[in-house]
Amino acid sequence: MKFLKKKLLIVAVFILIAAGINGNICEAKGRTFVVGFDAEFPPYGYLDENGEYVGFDLSLAEEVCKRRGWEFVKRPIAWDSKDSELETGAISCIWNGFTMNGRETEYTWSTPYVDNSQVVVVRTDSGIESLSDLAGKILVVQSDSAALAALEGDDATDENKALAKSLKNLQQVADYNSAFMNLESGMVDAIAMDIGVASYQLESRNGEFKLLDQHISSEQYGIGFKLGDTELRDQVQVTLFEMLSDGTFAKIAKEWGLTDSVCLSTEDTQYIDGGAVPVTDADIANVQSESVSDGTPKAVKLDFVGVMKQLISGLGSTFLIFVLTLLFSMPLGLLLAAVRMSKLKVLQWIAKIYISIMRGTPLMLQLLVVFFSPYYLFNVQTSYSYRFYAVIIGFSLNYAAYFAEIYRSGIQSIPIGQWEAARVMGYSRKTTFFRIIFPQMVKRIMPPVTNEVITLVKDTSLAFALAYTEMFTLAKQIAASQASLFPLFVAGLFYYIFNFIVAFIMDNIEKKLDYYR
Amino acid sequence: MKILEMNHIKKSFGDKVVLKDINVSVSEGEVVSILGPSGSGKSTLLRCATFLEHIDSGEILYSGKSVVTTDGGKAVYPARSELHQAQSNFGLVFQNFNLFPHFSVMKNIVDAPIVIQKRDKEEVYQEARELLRKVGLEDKENAYPCELSGGQQQRVAIARALAMNPKMLYFDEPTSALDPEITAEILRVLKSLAAEKMTMAIVTHEIDFARAVSDRVIFMDEGLVVEEGTPEDVIDNPRNDRTREFLQKLHV
User: Fold this and answer.
1) Are residues A315 and A214 in the same domain?
2) How far apart are CA A367 and CA A385, in angstroms?
3) Which of A423, A427, A440 has the CB atom closest to B102's CB atom?
């Protein structure tokens, strides 16, 4: 028994170290340029059919790194925490079809490189032909998106504010794939979004949808750096100009079907913040736009096996979160239960408050607190690998609270006579607990523990809040690039099979313990 | 020689006074039954004697050695190790057995001698088989408590208490959780123990049972010892009104 425990501990430590090393390698060498992007935003940055993060912005960034001799790191982030990611230095910049309008003073910006308009997508058969037809309809936008800012932000035009008022409802969704599902199923009437993304989606969804001719706004994309980080900004800017002058920029734009949208120009001599734009000695020529055919990349449709293959790479992460969380939260829960049942009122209350907070607030929020608090509270810069540790710490702390209560109910359900019989025979409290009470408790708590374990399997998907790429995050990314719900169903099937196995194992343990009543 | 001596025991639960200045002793080889209506304090007395409850004031001695004393009107309990030492004087058989359900019959009996008393395994197992034979369960050593009848479980509990080699055994209502016809099983075991001069103190409200095994009967009511003497004196010729009333009710 003791031997087994030691073994488990050693395995756990190895897994942690391995995970740590994995994350550290990238940070070890020279200058690292970490591009933060929303992996569900084709064609600027998304997961392709080979399981690679690709896109116009990533291609540009990769070329800049190549020329500068920097190490290039692509880091998918949760869009809602982009500012924290940038502020903590977890990423070097946000380069992801990032709208400058309305955010002028929040970041240190490069000059605009894409001119993008906010457009409205409707079903072809909806009868909506102009913006005024949207009155009384339901419009959906991505949360914290440029479209939302254009409609409701501080700088929104009067026309757009009036448009927003005329709507029956302005809804927000986390990603464009859900937006299209909503539109497709008729739950909403229109989507307001970036033209580039809209074209990509419309290309993938043959003729069901169309764009309104009227645009909500015209706006520009830039690369957002941490406020004050002008040095890095200038270096990237100069390299971009270099790429512009030798035609590489245009080539990449053509590759991604964005030739008509790009607007990077050396005629921009002033940044948005008033600073002068540096230009290299190199001869900078305005590259003539060749007339090119529309090269919007076509999404390669994946079949079941293709989706499964991609998801399997995320399954390992899901499994790791699952195993490590159980490994840490179960003993931690026991300790917490002991404190909760302590004779000292103070300890009792501490445990009570802890459990109440852990059960009373969303796990997703707890994960964010664990991840960002080292920086915000102690100003400690965390490495990328901390993302993984934060997931495990957050899950373990949360699940320990639930397990503690399960243990407590189990322990309290054991008749007091068991304690008394042991006491009269000279067992110490500790020996009584581990020899007499604990084994009986284990048997009694099997059903609620099984519930909790199955919930954990599904909860692992919450790791997306820290942009830790486990299976469900991956499924969402694939779904976005495939413009289809299918990958999510495949993920659902995986969860079901995983839980089926868990339930089978737990059932067997229960049967094994059935030798007594 | 007296194994147990309890002097001037007082015990209250909140405002309710349960034991009012009780004096009780049990001598070596003696079988004492403690009778009384429910609420008389007889079970509390036994729980105080076995340290499952703490007395408010008074004195408890085991084998002539003072264990619990009173200082300034409050009972003083010794350190854990000393209490532990005193505990080894007795075994306790519970009303509802309190066998460990996850242990087999054999393990229930040998666990404490091996784990707590650190005695030789082989010897303990041999002794346990002997005890099982004595209580008539030699074929049940691998069974689990849930597979046994109530009477059988109670006999295992007796064997478990005996395996610790105590100087005396306490029984807390040993037959009240059992069907009447099973009572005879337990009575037979107790009689054979009495024949071996095992010292026993039995809390019960079964008059016939008390008469059949006891050398001495203590009758308690409302936290006081009302009458004490041989079974013939207390049960058949009670002098106290309350004893008489109690016995009459039972005989109806």
Assistant:
1) no
2) 15
3) A440
End-of-domain residue from the set A218, A243, A273: A218
Which residues are CB-contacts of A133 (< 8 A; sequence separation ≥ 6)?
A127
Q: What is the pTM of this model?
A: 0.75
List all residues 6 or more positions away from B234 whose beta carbon is below 8 Å from its beta carbon. Answer: B35, B217, B218, B219, B227, B228, B243
Would you place residue A20 in the very low, low, confident or very high pLDDT band (cuts 50, 70, 90)? very low
Tens digit of each residue's pLDDT (9 = 90 or more) over B190-245: 999 999 999 999 998 888 888 989 999 999 999 999 999 999 988 888 888 888 88
**Residue B190's closest CA among B146, B147, B154?**
B154
- How many residues are there in chain A? 517
Q: What secondary structure, in 3-state letters, does A222-264 show?
A: EEEECCCCHHHHHHHHHHHHHHHHCCHHHHHHHHCCCCCCECC
Cα–Cα separations (whole angstroms), residue A309 to A53, A213, A469, B157:
16, 40, 15, 60
Test mutation, B84, B85, B116, B148, chain A, max A CBs within 10 A: B116
Q: Looking at A96-110, A264-278, A428-442, A489-503, which range is the least confident one?
A: A264-278
Number of helices followed by number of strands (H, E) in chain A: 18, 13
Name the DSSP letter for residue A131: G
User: What's the first-to-final CA gap in chain B, in angstroms?
Assistant: 40
- pLDDT at residue A3 tops 70: no
CA dist B104 → A43, A421, A487, B141 (Å): 68, 16, 52, 7
Does B238 lie at the interface with A, CB-CB under 8 angstroms?
no
E strand or H helix that includes residue B153: helix B150-162
Inter-chain touch A420–B84, beta carbons under 8 Å: no
Q: For position A415, which CATH number holds?
A: 1.10.3720.10
Using alpha carbons, select from B94, B95, B63 the residue that is nearest to residue B161: B94
**CA nearest neighbour of A248 among A262, A268, A234:** A262
| Closest CA–CA distance from residue A515 to any residue of chain B (Å) | 8
What ipTM was estimated for this complex? 0.94
B76 in reach of chain A (CB within 8 A): no
3-state helix, strand and coil shares in percent for chain B, rounded to the nearest 5: 40, 30, 30
For residue B113, give how far its alpha carbon lies from the nearest alpha carbon of chain A (Å): 9
Q: Report the alpha-carbon distance of residue B87 to residue A371 in Å, rounded.
A: 54
Q: Is residue A255 part of a domain?
A: no
Q: State which residues form the domain around A362.
A: 304-515
Residue ranges in A379-485 assigned as alpha helix (H): 386-412, 416-424, 429-431, 438-459, 471-482
The reply to whether A318 and A193 lie within a common domain is no
Residue A268 lies in a domain: no
Q: Give a yes or no: residue A259 inside a domain.
A: no
Q: Is residue A169, in this structure, part of any structural domain at all?
A: yes
* B112 neighbourhood in chain A, CB within 8 Å: 425-427
Q: How many domains is chain A built from?
A: 2
**Strand, helix or coil for residue A361:** coil
| Residue A446, helix vs strand vs coil | helix
Final residue of a domain: which of A187, A218, A249? A218
Same domain assignment for residues A317 and A420: yes
Which alpha helices (H) appear in A89-139, and where do they start and end?
none
Size of interface A-B (CB pairs under 8 A): 56
State the Cα–Cα distance between residues B216 and B199, nearest whole angstrom.
12
B87 neighbors B68 (Cβ within 8 angstroms) = no
Residue identified by tokens 């289809």 is: A484
Tokens standing for residue A261: 């949208």
CA angle, corner B14, sides to B13 and B15, nearest 5?
105
| CATH code (residue A200) | 3.40.190.10
Shortest Cα distance, chain B CAs vs residue A509, angstroms? 15
Round to whole Å and give the CA distance between B124 and B116: 12
B14 at interface of A, judged by CB pairs closer than 8 A: no
